[in-house]
Amino acid sequence: MPTTTDQPLLSPELLGRLERLELVSRKVFRGRMKGERRSRRKGESVEFADFRHYVAGDDLRLIDWNLYARLDQLFLKLFLEEEDLHFFALVDASESMNFSDPSKLRVAKQLAAALGYVGLCRADRVSVSVLGPEGGRAPVLRGRASLWKMLGYLDSVESGHNVSLHDGVKDFSIRTTGTGIAVLLTDLMDKQGYESALRMLIGRRMDVFVMHILSPEELDPPLRGDRKLIDVEDRDESEITINAYVLQKYKETVHSFIRDAKQFCSQRSIVYIPVRTDTPVETIVTQYLRERGVVR
Amino acid sequence: MSWISTLTPWQWGLMGLVPIGIILLYFLKLRREPVEVPSTYLWMRTIEDLHVNSLLQRLRRSLLLLLQLLVVGLAALALLRPGVRGEMASQGRLVFLLDASASMQAEDVDGFANRFAKAKSLIGDRVETMTDDETAMLVSFSDRAEVLQSFTTDRRRLRDALSRAVVTNRPTDVLGALKAADGLANPRRTSQAGDVNDVQVADAKPADLLLYSDGGFQNVTEFDLGNLVPDYVAIGTTQPTNLAITAFSAERNVEKPSEIQAFATVVNLGETDASSSATLTLANELLDASSVDLPAGEQVGLSFVFESDDAVSLTLTLDIKDDLPTDNVAYAGLTPLRTVSVLVVSPGNTPLELALKTPKAAKICQSQFVSPSYLQTEPYSKRAAAGTDDLIIYDRCVPSEMPITNTFFIGSLPPGDGWKWTTGPTGVVLIDLDRTHPLMRYLELFSLLIFQGRAIEGPPGAVELLGADVGSMMVLAPREGYQDLLLGFELLSESEDGGTDTNTNWYAERSWPVFVLNVLRYLAGAAEASGAPSFKPGDTVRLRLESALPKVGVQWNGGGATEIDSMEVPVGASGVTEILKTDRLGNYQVKAGDRVVDLFSINLFDARESKLAAAQAVELGYESIEASTGGVEKRKEYWRWLLMGMLALLATEWWVYAKRVG
After folding, report:
1. ∠ CA B461-B465-B468, rounded to 5°
2. Same domain for B37 and B108
3. Do the strands B420-421 and B456-457 form a parallel or antiparallel pair, or are they unpaired?
4. What InterPro entries does its record include (chain B) (predicted)?
5. How far is B20 from chain A, CA to nearest CA, in Å?
6. Domain tally for chain B?
7. Which residues form the domain of B385?
8. Which residues 99-158 of A are in CB contact (within 8 Å) with B?
């Protein structure tokens, strides 16, 4: 059982390092408020975007008078608008995540907190929530000062929200209207399959990241002999005699599972990031995620 | 080479189920340790892949189970004593001949109650080693053969048949058993030998003839082994100890009717000297005793004298513990003294009257003389029909019907077609005399003068007792349980002038009264009144009783006070009864109510059976067969216990293991 729940999700050192990072979106989204990012919407930033013909009612202040002098036609000078980014971290808090030490859920919460903090530091709109109906309780945060609120929420999240990925993402999609970066922190172990959930996120034109969290025990189970395996989510029992051959088969199944997930994601421009729970969060965020282009 | 199977197919099947049972028990007993996993999702996918060979996968892991199965299998195989049979000259067909004669009761074999038990055990061992291809039959024989089981491959039926076999008190005649065994091996031709058109009706089926016997039988000459391959398994030692009573009888002293003389012959038929005491008991009370001390091969006669007027049942016992107890006891019976009733129908016959009135004859005979006209009267008809007389003598006269009793015709033919004169009256010279017949005992007749006689031809079964130059002069013939004696010449003849002439000088000879006494003893039954006959075990005992009895009881007495058994037998219309259950040695009393009407005894009295030394070779159909050990080799199999211990240990280990894991 996990023993590290008493420790803070993010250490002060990590917080310091996170402040220097920035979330990278491969897409340009329309934000709701002015932020530190360029927006597809033309706005008031100093960065030139385009010209267009003047139509009645346009702000006269935006007319490029120099062009008018040369061409005797009225053109409006358009500038790019700087906007904030929507960052959604979706944490799978099903019972299966409460496994290993540190638990997969804790690692997921740490990663969500770290990425969320990066977003907060860059004035992005950050929403960290668990999948399922409980996610509606999650606050939408902005600004560095909201860090404690976010951590408070994450601390309150316990495992046991046993919803399928499909239902959880569907619930999220209904609840959320905006688009942006969606980071799904899950172990993808859903008997109904993860594909529909990821398709739904893409359908929402999110820039989707899947952080596939697996514990070493799942990759290489320390089980031998005649066992009755009990699924912690649905209490499904499965009798099995585990010998070297079965274990080998299991590992092949796991690798096949990971390979399939990776392939599914890459075909749909989803960034797939496998995460082992025995890897420190600092390493994941400051090295691993940077290498994968999630942050910079 | 063939695999020795100690199990029947269904037993093999049952053994094959043992490992399956162990595997099933393994799965039933298996208690899996529950463990929580985040999701069985991947495990399920793994199991699906393995589903097709999941059973094997489960077993694959369990090295312990596999090892145990291997050990159990090896142990089970070891317990079955696997092995291959070497080349055997087996014909595939076996005929077991089991000697069940009296000598097989000899107790000279170690480890078994008697020779018969050992023979059964040897046959049982051989049956166990039979292959599935072998077929066998079982025949037991004493003085007759009994097919206990015809050819079969079913070992169980052979074992059942073997368990039914019992040893008897009877003598040995192996020929019947050989003929029973012979049937399939040497099929007969359809008709006469030498007929070229004749064909053999069936294929010969060669067989092994396994004779389990002590060889105590006559050499068999009228038999051809043909396709039978003999193997004689000698049972018993060659150095037995055996004292035997080979004869025992009792007679009343004719001079002193109340005095009884008992005679016995004791023979040492063993190979060592023996001494014993012989005890004579009457109804379990000691009468007399005598000591017997005999070197091997010698014999001695014993005689005892005592007095009794009643019917007696005597038992003579040799008080020795030798190899064959059966022949140490002999039985003899004696009926109470009685007189016979004789009716003489004669126109007058002084020599006969005188002979019937001699002191000896008068003691055992009550005679009545009547004239031939008496034959026409009512009292005679009743006497003749009731059989009141023990003997009727017709001197020169003929009844219209034969009476229900024995008859003696002098110079006249009995009624009916059976008897004929073959010549007319003529001079007679006697040339032959059957002295072995009881009627002719002690007679010297060649000095007789016979003036006129006629040769006789009797009915079928007739025996010539006196032969003359012209033909038979005295003939004895049976008639429905009775006997008729016919003398071909008259003693006295009627002269031409109506006077009486003598036809022979016999009446002046000493042999005449002796002959009449013989007639009284044998034909009238006076002799039976003294000594009871002795029969061999298993013989059919035929007795003539008073015809008025519808049934009689037969009481067997084996000597001891408790060895008494009774049975009832019916009596035929002519007063003849047949007693079949005579297998047990002892005195048999035939009783009508409480009255003893007859006695007989059953004794072994067979020197061949009592001669116990097992023959080292027997001769069957001019072929001498050496004795073999009969051995199916048997080991003392202690290793079975070791293996059983191993299995028990394994089971304990398994239990402990299962308990610990569970």
Report:
1. 115
2. no
3. antiparallel
4. Aerotolerance_reg_N (IPR024163), VWF_A (IPR002035), vWFA_dom_sf (IPR036465)
5. 19
6. 5
7. 340-523
8. 99, 104
